[in-house]
Design the sequence.
């Protein structure tokens, strides 16, 4: 009887030993099979994301001709610094020549470079003049390697109060202007079979939020146009990237247009606490060196909102409806 109990106790112990041995050898075998695959992948990922983009990107961008619209301030100015610092031949474009000259002098003063930035006064709202301006841009160096459509204007207002002229103004500046400039530059890129076109859109080009109708509509159109262009140029060596930032700490909200066409003049809390423009420019220049086709520069919540809009639209619209009610109740929309 005692012998039987001893034998019965030894059986579970035997199974435990066998189980532990199997687990041990399974781990060894799995490790032996997985590590040779995972380790090189980790090394390659590190090389691509850090070593290649951080160290060799300047060399890959050196002497590249980069045309940046909206380069007089904000993200455009930060991009001018980033590309000039990388050794690119930068063409600064915006409406105000005096502001562009200031940026140019800052670049010359802060960085040692063999390349001197060029200045191109350009009003994206003046569609008739854009082709001529594009020709002048091409005349600086004979070609454009990288076109960055960054210039634009924001909007604050309720749809029912917004004059149609305001919608047209926003759409022309944010959509038709960049489209016209891209169409004017594109033939020269096709002739050389080389080029990179970047459209600075917005998270609001993927999702719409209350009291931003004209701005969101212009960015939705931008997203669609450059997505289509990306597909149509897939057989060429011309790459297209749509960058969708969330809130960036610039003067975008200060210079926004109201429903009546006036200047908003308020620094929104979301803008004031947004991403540093230099940080955004750093991410964009890395994406440029890596020739990425899309970049969403936002925190986790905006990215979740994009997925909620696609996968669970009723929840998205419920949340946006609640947001509209809160904003209206708090009276944060500037009224006449």
Sequence:
């Amino acid at each position: 009887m005692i012998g039987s109990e001893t034998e019965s106790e030894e059986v579970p112990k035997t199974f435990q030993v066998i189980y532990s041995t199997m687990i041990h050898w399974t781990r060894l075998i799995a490790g032996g099979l997985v590590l040779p695959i995972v380790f090189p992948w980790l090394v390659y990922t590190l090389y691509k994301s850090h070593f290649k983009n951080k160290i060799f990107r300047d060399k890959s961008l050196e002497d590249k001709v980069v045309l940046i619209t909206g380069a007089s301030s904000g993200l455009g100015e930060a991009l001018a610094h980033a590309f000039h610092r990388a050794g690119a031949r930068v063409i600064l474009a915006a409406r105000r020549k005096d502001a562009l000259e200031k940026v140019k002098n800052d670049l010359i003063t802060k960085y040692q470079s063999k390349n001197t930035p060029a200045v191109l006064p350009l009003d994206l709202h003046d569609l008739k003049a854009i082709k001529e301006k594009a020709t002048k841009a091409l005349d600086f160096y004979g070609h454009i390697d990288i076109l960055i459509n960054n210039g634009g204007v924001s909007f604050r207002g309720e749809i029912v109060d917004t004059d149609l002229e305001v919608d047209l103004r926003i759409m022309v500046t944010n959509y038709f202007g960049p489209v016209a400039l891209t169409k004017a530059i594109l033939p020269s890129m096709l002739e050389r079979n080389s080029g990179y076109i970047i459209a600075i859109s917005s998270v609001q080009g993927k999702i719409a939020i209350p009291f931003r109708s004209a701005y969101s509509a212009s960015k939705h159109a931008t997203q669609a146009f450059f997505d289509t262009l990306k597909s149509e140029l897939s057989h060429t060596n011309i790459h297209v990237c749509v960058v969708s930032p969330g809130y960036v700490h610039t003067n975008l909200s200060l210079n926004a247009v109201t429903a009546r066409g006036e200047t908003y003049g308020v620094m929104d809390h979301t803008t004031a606490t947004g991403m540093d423009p230099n940080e955004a420019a750093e991410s964009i220049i890395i994406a440029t060196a890596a020739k990425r086709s899309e970049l969403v520069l936002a925190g986790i919540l905006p990215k979740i909102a994009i997925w909620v809009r696609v996968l669970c639209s009723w929840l998205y619209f419920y949340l946006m409806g609640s947001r509209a009610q809160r904003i209206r109740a708090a009276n944060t929309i500037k009224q006449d």
